Amino acid sequence: MFIPLSFKDVINRFVDNLVDHYGDTLRALSESVLSGVLLPLESALRALPPWLVLLAMGLLGWHATRRLRQGVLLAGLLYLIGCLGLWDPLMQTFALMLVAMTLTVLLGVPAGILMARCEGVRRVLQPLLDIMQTLPTFVYLIPVLMLFGLGKVPAIFATVVYALPPLIRLTDLGIRQVDHDVAEAAWSFGPTRLQLLLGVQLPLALPSIMAGINQSIMMALSMVVIASMIGARGLGEDVLIGIQTLDFGRGLQAGAAIVILAIVLDRIGQGYGGRRVPPRR
Fold it and tell me: How far apart are CA 58 and CA 219, in angstroms?
């Protein structure tokens, strides 16, 4: 009754080809990211006194929201994670998040700008982003494991792929929503396209871009537990151990720490994203 149709062999041959020809290069890239970026950052964060990290996050929360009470509250929530005995896993997760979000921003913002400026690129990226957002997260892990093996680096790349679409979409949306009259008025002064982008369009689109970064952070945090299955460690590892050993208390405690971290990052992201660019005189 059904016509036989399968594309799994084509995909498997493509991935096998990729591993055969570029496997060593990708493993070298993985090692350079691990030993050159992630591990030094993680070691530095874990070596810092907890009070200094709490102070820095409290000041960041105050600067983002312009509310001293909010900064104190965010620092207090992170202090609660330390009281739960999860400070080291928190720093591991935070280091992974910093690297993953840096890569996400470096890839997502230029892609969103290109998508807003070029209709052809938009037509190509739109269905690709739809697939990236709807594909089950476990599917990301299969090619990443084949190309990079187990460890923190494949977890970073899987997180980047999962967190990238909302940033690209909201960057594109923010630039497209810039008032046409404002852009025309700025264009009449004779700037280059780059000057118009950096001086007018990006500042006006900044709230939308910050909302995209905030959404990407939330999606990246949702990958923490899944990434722990391939050796990412951090807070997700405690949740995974709780599942494996049926230790509900340990899993719930680590899950609460992830929720607290999400709240802290969300409030800081919303604080910066909620700001508006002051009108030019």
Answer: 23
Burial (CB < 10 A; 0-12, 13-18, 19+), residue 107, is middle
Residue 87, token pair as written in the block: 């400070």
Task: Compute the distance between CA of residue 185 and CA of residue 124 in angstroms, rounded to an integer.
Answer: 31
What does the DSSP 8-state code read for residue 3?
P
Distance CA 172, CA 212 (A): 10
Residues 6 or more apart whose CB falls under 8 angstroms from that of 176 comprise 116
Whole-angstrom distance, CA of residue 250 vs CA of residue 263:
20
Q: Would you state the structure tokens that stand for residue 204, as one six-digit string? A: 């006006």
Angstrom distance (rounded) from CA 127 to CA 107: 18
Task: Determine the Cα–Cα distance for residues 206 and 173; give it in Å rounded to an integer.
Answer: 11
What's the rounded Cα separation, in Å, for the pair 213 and 257? 21
pLDDT tens-digit profile of 179-188? 777 777 777 7
- Give 4's DSSP letter: P
Handedness of CA 152, 157, 161, 164 (dihedral sign): positive
Per-residue pLDDT at 239 exceeds 60: yes
Cβ(216)–Cβ(108) below 8 Å: yes
**Entry pTM:** 0.83
Task: Specify whether the CB–CB gap between 221 and 269 falls below 8 A.
Answer: no
